[in-house]
Amino acid sequence: LSAAVQKFSQSLQEFQFECIGDAETDDEVNIAQSFKEFSQLLNTMEEERRRLIQNADDVLITPLERFRKEQIGAAKEGKKKFDKEAEKYYSSLEKHLNLSSRKKESALQEADAQIDKERQLFYDASLEYVFKIQEVQEKKKFEFVEPLLAFLQGLFTFYHEGYELAHEFEPYKQQLQFNLQNTRNNFLSTKQEVEKLMNRVRSADQDQKPPGHWTMEGYLYVQEKRPLGCTWTRHYCTYEKDSKVFSMCNTEAKPTAKQNSVVSNPTEKFRLKSCIRRKTDSIDKRFCFDIEVVERHGIITLQALSESNRRLWLEAMDGKEPIYNLPAILSKKEETYLNEAGFNFVRKCIQLVEVRAGLNTMGLYRVGGINSKVQKLMTTVFSPKAASDMDLDPDTWDNKTITSGLKNYLRCLSEPLMTYKLHSDFLLAVKSDDQNYRVCAVHALVHKLPDKNKEMLEILIKHLLNVSTHSESNMMTVSNLGVIFGPTLMRSQEETVAAMMNIKFQNIVVEILIENFEKIFHQAPDPNVPLPQPQSRPGSRRSRAICLSSGPRKPKSLYTPSLCLADADSDTFSSSSGSTPIGSMDSLSSHSSEQNSSSKTCSSPQTKDKPPFPGLRRTPSSLSSSEPQGPICTSSPDSSSREDAGRMDWEDSCGVNSVLKAARSSPAPTKAPHTEAGIKSAQLNRSNPISKILTHHRRS
């Protein structure tokens, strides 16, 4: 068993998580590191098991073997001597009794003296043998029991070590559960968005150009002239209209370069001069057009994938083909603008939710309303005939319809509230490893938003902060609100799967806004904070995950499992009754391994004297009068490197004095009183095996 566990532990140590995307959240980093933590835990237990087996040999088998050889062996030797002397004595006695009385007196006296001598030797051998039997019979009472007691003490120590390890592992387990649940929530949110994207792609026109970074991009076949004719090779091409830069990368040629284990072909870039549609009768291929570039003489003939695809390329390059307007991605209805009617609608929704105690509604904003009612609400409020300051009737509209309408309005804005322009900057800010910098960078970027956007964002975030303070009843923690409003407030302009992978970071931006509301919206940003710059995340960052051996760890705040079930026609996802809990009591995506040091507010503060785990009893080493309980909120720049929990001094805990102390002042297994009695007995007799096992059991 021990060998199998050690082999399993080695497999966990060597296992590597590979994640897609250009960055990982703190939750994902800790999850990727968790197997190494498990491996270390298993190794520690197997080391204790190995020590237990070694102690069994030292304190049980060896003493019993020594007792057999020294004591029982000596008794056997005494028996041999007794048998020899008895045989000699009785033989002499028989001869003595057979002497004739007619012998001379001197001969008889000599015979009597000889038999007395033989009798004395026999008595001495008898006494020694009896004494040895008595000694063995008495000594076995403690020589047998003491080694067994010492072995049991080692066994208790092994199990107590497991108890202590489990007790110390509890904060990390709680933390990892938070990380797992936040990652699960991010996955479900991202999965929904990807499924929506898949459905839009399936239903959209095949050649429709979605909004993206490039004016036009896609596959084109390029004509390459050869001595014996020409060939057509497939290239992936992009075109930027403002700079007139056209680039193409051959996707059929063998790779010529390899960087970071990824093979790639070089990309050719040209500056466009002109674009002309190719006449059908001038070439035997369909859907062709010619371009002229500054860097090459002559023309480059390209073949599109279809007629409509060629029209899109010609339109993007200002070719001679008639220009066709692209289908609108968003309808130009009144509700797609950030105007006074929109501000009034948002304020009325928030006021209605807060006034009628809707903040305590389970799953507020997570559980959606009926789509038909939501559409009716939007039509009523944003009708051309509706007044700009129209009130919402609380009897007509329930909380689910109001909250879904608010989300729908923010989701359908022609440009997301946090703008396309600053979208990538916000993502780069929260991908930083520095917790303080994340907050400062988001703070600075918020103040770069247009005034209307910033005003609307402040109204919304203030409301969400209010919602999060009622998380005990509505279960909408900061983390859960981030999952709901991340994609709503930071919609990506480019709808690709790669963009969907950034949803988890959009959630973190919203969490930072909620947790640092007072600082971000009511204080001026630091002008010395540099704006985020694109950078690759170093591979060594994973080593920063919470580690059992990294130092003292504080227990996290208590997590209460709860469920949030959506209606059958809800427009948001919900957890099933058999799923894991929705999320942590505090936000963990933005700072899953430590409390954000620059945060001025806490969503779930705890009193200092209240233990974070009411149902979890702590070891003496984790009880410190100077150790604060619950989340710490400070602006100290050094606080971001705080360790997160407490570890026992194992060397001391395995000694006699510390075990006694632990038995008296900490929760121990039910056998603790017997263990303490055994240790006290060991202290009375330092030479017995119990003291030896405790001395041997010390850990360096």
From TrEMBL:
Biological classification of the source: Eukaryota, Metazoa, Chordata, Craniata, Vertebrata
SUPFAM superfamilies attached to this UniProt entry: BAR/IMD domain-like, GTPase activation domain, GAP, PH domain-like
Bias (Polar residues) ranges: 619-639
Protein name: Rho GTPase activating protein 42b
Domain Rho-GAP, first and last residues per copy: 324-521
PH domain span: 213-322
Naturally occurring in which organism (per UniProt): Cirrhinus molitorella (mud carp)
Coiled-coil intervals, chain numbering: 35-62
Bias-annotated ranges (Low complexity): 571-599
Keyword Disulfide bond set for record: no
Region: Disordered, residue numbers: 524-553, 571-700
